[in-house]
Input
Amino acid sequence: MSTDRTGQGSASAPSAADNTGAGIPAETPGPGTGLVQLITPSGERISHPEFDPWLQDITDEQLCSLFEDMTVIRRIDVEATALQRQGELALWPPLLGQEAAQIGSGRALREDDFVFSSYRENGVAYCRGVDLTDIVRVWRGNASSGWDPYSINMATPQIIIGAQTLHATGYAMGIQNDGADCVAVTYFGDGATSEGDVNEAMVFAASFQVPVVFFCTNNHWAISEPVRLQSHIQLADRAAGFGIPSLRVDGNDVLAVMAATRVALDRARRGGGPTFIEAVSYRMGPHTTADDPTRYRDANELEDWAERDPISRVEALLDRKGLLTAELQQQVRDKADAVAREMRTGCTSMPDPRPLDVFKHVYSTPNSWLDRQQDHYARYLASFGDPAEAVSEEGAR
Amino acid sequence: MTQMTFARAINAGLRKSLEDDPKVVLLGEDIGALGGVFRITDGLQKDFGKHRVVDTPLAESAIVGTAVGLAYRGYRPVVEIQFDGFIYPAFDQIVSQVAKLHYRTRGAVKMPITIRVPFGGGIGSPEHHSESPEAYFTHTSGLRVVTVSNPQDAHTVIRQAISCDDPVLYFEPKRRYHDKGEVDENMDPRAAVPMDQARVVSEGTDVTLVAYGPLVKTARDAALAAADEGISIEVIDLRSLAPVDYDTVVASVRKTGRLVVTHEAGQSGGLGAEVAASITERCFYYLEAAPVRVTGFDIPYPYSKLEMHHVPGLDRILDGVDRALGRPNSLSGLEG
Output
């Protein structure tokens, strides 16, 4: 941490805990400034009069299903990381540790809600029913987007930090114009809250009272920069400055996340405007596979958070309830294996794009400059004697 | 046909577009009750409502960024950037999002966003109110950049821009807002000359003079003045800055053998450089002299008492024509 940038440093190097916690009581249950928590790290279900009503439909079977989903997306993550290490993917942004935040919120959404996420919400895409091959298409370098946004009502993941929050707000303005009751949901990290776009998005969302949910996963690290460098107050508290109500939840607690998201979605559907959710979690892996977190964070911190692992606490809850049978565990393992296999096969058997594909979809109507460049490049390629290789299915646009 | 000002012609075009397509929405600062600082949207909020003509908070990135979201939802947003120099906070959303989402999503998401930018100088404004930022955008793939030089074009092209499925930056020459001209409001924009086609303003045989936006009138005046000296200038209004309709320019240069390009923006990396290079590539054996640029200087737009030194006027353009023709000119005797 730089003393100059934060104004809070001291001559001696601060500990990792000082860097990251910002004094946040990570396990304090309850509403308000504390964390909403419904499952403790040891798997105890805490009753909560405000949030329990939002989970009445969560049967034992559904709890098992959430456990399965979280396990599957962790497996997707592990498999994709392996694919990257094996040279099949150029890069991968792991979500390890954020499974509850993504499944809890993703499973709360309705099909006609529309998601604008960052590049890390592959678990949310899984909830939206994404084709598994499409999850890795971008990271293999075969396309700039994996899926058709309208096929799963989820925009192409955003690389520019925070830009998508404005898109969600604009989409929500459209929902409001249409008189529909769906919701735009935008996912971003703690680092994004420093960006102008996120702040502008909150101004617009509050001004027009549009149905948008700002879902901020505070994973404590923006690459190497701790959340304390971004904010000296709890991120959820920033929303009040925009006139937006907020919820601060234990992001490693799938039920708390789900309940909070449902509260926010319901408010939006009923014309109550935007809500800001801070899901307090932890990025247990690197920022991307190109990153080395051992250079900037303390191993003790990782250990602390490993004890609050989102999957093991659901596992513990299931165990307490007598639901963690060998049969369930096998079923979940099989599902994760099948998903990983499908993704790996899809990845490695993906055909390479063809040269002239670079010209496709720049415009939706003809562009004389580009048509000419494509024509010239096609001639150039044809000069090597294999025009078939160069031919594209469509012309340049 | 009706006589109307440039400003009124744009207003009428916006009105037609709002009437024709319920998915057209206008967004911008002060565009509602005030009708915009130039009154281009005058009366539109009153007639179409606050959800069609949206007065936004003051945040350019958000104005463009929310337009992206609206486009995702099937709307055709028309965004007003109040002044040229205010477009920079929205730059990221324009070049990284608006321009690229169609490509990024492999054609699944269309971005039919029109970004209206009053641009250029000559109205005695303070800093940030007189700039010509078009080259930043002509350099960005995925965007179409157009500008207009007369009320009829202003009316027709705004409607074409709004109905175009690609994002369009529509640069409005603000010092021409009060110029009047004949406008056929009933012209079907689909039947009119496409917005990406250049227009021969006046025919000539000695020099091709390429201009756009506010300088088309100046170029035409220069051609008239030159005619008195027996010089025949063919004036071309580019209309579209990205893509440039090179076929029209090439045909003219092959006839005249000489090219002068003029714009208010600074010279280095400007559109004039692009036109000169492209025409040199395509017309090298037809050119009888090196292409000449008559442009603004590579300086921040100057304070208003000096702005007319920066903005090319009739005499500077004619001096450029003399350079192209090898006639005595201000640089005679200089090498290189």
